[in-house]
Amino acid sequence: MPPILRTEKLSKSFLLAGQPRLILDGLSFEMDSEAFVSVVGSSGCGKSTWLELLAGITHPDSGEIYYRGEKITGKTGLLGYMPQDDLLFPWLSVVENVLLPVRVRDSDIKTAREKVHKLLPVFGLEEHAAHLPYQLSGGLRQRAAFLRTVMTDTQLLLLDEPFASLDAITRLQLQNWLKDITTELKLSIIFVTHDIDEALNLSDEIQVMRGKPGRFAGAFKLGERGKLNEPERAALKRQILELVADGMTAGDAR
Ligand SMILES: Nc1ncnc2c1ncn2[C@@H]1O[C@H](COP(=O)(O)OP(=O)(O)O)[C@@H](O)[C@H]1O
Ligand SMILES: [Mg+2]
Fold first, then answer.
1. Do 75 and 166 share a structural domain?
2. What pLDDT score does 165 carry?
């Protein structure tokens, strides 16, 4: 079986003050179906830009992206993408927000509605179907945004720091919930975070991105998801921190 996702030497630059600045330098990556891969790295190293390339929102300068062996470089709508600042539309109910990708695709809304109603309890949202976003807690809003991403009907989801704005307890609860639900729904996940503990809680594999331009500096396989004992976990955390920090130059701290 081909890997569910593979990227080959993806590079991307942005114009800064009229000059191209290289942001991502030749990123190659691959992951298996149903894996949970986290990408950790310090702020500004290019994590969100990389996800935008995968989602087809921006185009790489060079390099290719393959989904299940097929070239998808620059194509949108094939992977489920939840951006860093995902916002629910304040004037739409939870159900209507969740149905948006289906409306955009112009697919069968009746079947989608049935699917949403089956999934609402799985997402702990059954009592909130008719609520507006402002009536939900932060954790519930993130669940609704995640359900909307699931409704894009793809097996591979790209999540950009989805829990960054939540309090510590809600965050832990949602991490556990995400772990269970991705297994239950057989999803493959790329999870971007700057929080190494969060990555250790969730992942089968952790990729470290670092530097300017950003590159993958190393990968850590964790074995069965979240089954590390404390000393293993502490040792891994130290190694990952060292790798992330090694890529920091004096310029990054400014
Ligand atoms: N649209 C853009 N135009 C110009 N520069 C950008 C753009 N998007 C991101 N950048 C720059 O690219 C670098 C990486 O940003 P980003 O991918 O958001 O990093 P991260 O998600 O790891 O914090 C930053 O220096 C940022 O300022
Ligand atoms: Mg980001």
1. yes
2. 84
Return left, alpha or beta for 8; rule: phi > 0 is left, psi -120 to 50 is alpha, else beta.
beta
State the greatest distance between any 2 C-alpha atoms of the chain, in Å, as a whole number.
56
Supply the residue whose CA is at minimum distance from atom 27 of ligand 1: 44
Do residues 161 and 225 both lie within one domain? yes
Same domain for 173 and 74: yes
Rounded distance, CA 131 to CA 1, Å?
Answer: 43
Q: What are phi and psi of 119, to 5 degrees?
A: -85, -25
pLDDT, mean of residues 240-246: 90
Residue 252 above 60 pLDDT?
A: no
Of 125, 153, 181, the residue at which a domain comes to its end is: 153
Q: Whose CA is nearest to atom 14 of ligand 1?
A: 46
> What's residue 48's pLDDT?
95
With a cut of 80, say whether residue 28 has pLDDT above it.
Answer: yes
Q: Choose which residue among 13, 14, 85, 195 to substitute to test ligand 1 binding: the one with the highest number of ligand atoms within 8 A of its C-beta.
A: 14
- CA of residue 41 to ligand 2 center, whole Å: 9
The domain that holds 67 is classified in CATH as 3.40.50.300
The domain containing residue 127 runs over which residues?
Answer: 85-153
Residue 14 in contact with ligand 1 by CB distance below 6 A: yes
Residue 44 per-residue DSSP state: T
Query: What is the C-alpha separation between 134 and 88, in angstroms, rounded?
Result: 9
Task: Between 227 and 55, name the one with better pLDDT.
Answer: 55
